[in-house]
Amino acid sequence: MATVSDLSKGNFIRYNGEVVKVEELQHRTPGNLRAFYQVKMRNIRSGKIVENRFRPGESVDLLRVETKEYQYLYEEGDSLVCMDNETFEQIYLDKALLGDSFKYLKEAVTLVIAFENGTDPIIAEPPPHVVLNVTYTEPGLSGDTATRTLKPATVETGAEVRVPLFINTGDNVKINTANGEYLERVK
Questions:
Q1: 138-163 pLDDT per residue, tens
Q2: Where does residue 31 rank: exposed (0-12), middle (13-18), buried (19+ CB within 10 A)?
C-alpha cells in the first residue's frame, strides 16, 4: 500500500473497486484548515471523471502497470487478436478498451497495451493517427480548396469520416484516431 503523497499524474490506482488513472493531483492548504490532496481520476472502463479529496498519509492501492507494444493482427468476435512484437505471443484484447478509435484501425498497426500484474490488459492506446484509403466519396471538383466545407467519405475500415471537397475515391488520408477527424491528404 502506498500513501496519497506517493501518487503522481499518470499513476493507476484502485478506487472503490475500479481501476482509475490519475489525471490531476493538487496539494492544497487552504487558510487555517488542514491540508488535503485534490485528485481528479478517470475510470478506465467507463471513461468517467471522478474527483476526491484525500487526507495526507491516507493509503491508496497503487497498481503496478507495465506497457508493451503489440501488433493488431485481426478481429475475432468482440476481441482483437494482437501479437507481442518480441516474443510473438498472441493475446485477445477486448474492443471496449479502445473505444471509438477501433473503427479507424487496420491490420498490422501497433498498439500500446498496459497490463495490471503482467496478465490483465487494462488500457490500450492506438497510434495518434493512421493513414487510410478512401473507398467511396462523392467526386470532388477542381478548385474546391477555398472553403473548409466537408463531405462524408467511407474509408477502408468501413468507418465514415468527414473530408474536404477535393478528396476523391482512392486518395489516402491521415485520420486522427482519438476523434476521427481528417488531418491531411497523403501522397
A1: 886 666 666 778 899 999 999 999 99
A2: exposed
CATH superfamily of 129-186: Nucleic acid-binding proteins (2.40.50.140)
Name the residue with cell 507494444. 69
Judge if 65-125 and 129-186 fold alike in CATH terms: yes
Average pLDDT on 42-62 reads 90
State whether the Cα torsion 152-169-95-79 is positive or negative: positive
Gap between the Cα atoms of 118 and 171, Å rounded: 41
The upper half-sphere exposure of residue 14, i.e. CA atoms within 13 Å in the direction of its Cβ, equals 11
Does the 65-125 domain belong in CATH 3.30.365.10?
no
Alpha-carbon distances of 177 from 34, 39, 50, 57, 98, rounded to whole Å: 43, 28, 25, 39, 10
| Residue reference for cell 503523497 | 5
Query: Which class for 60: exposed (0-12), middle (13-18), buried (19 or more C-beta within 10 A)?
Result: buried
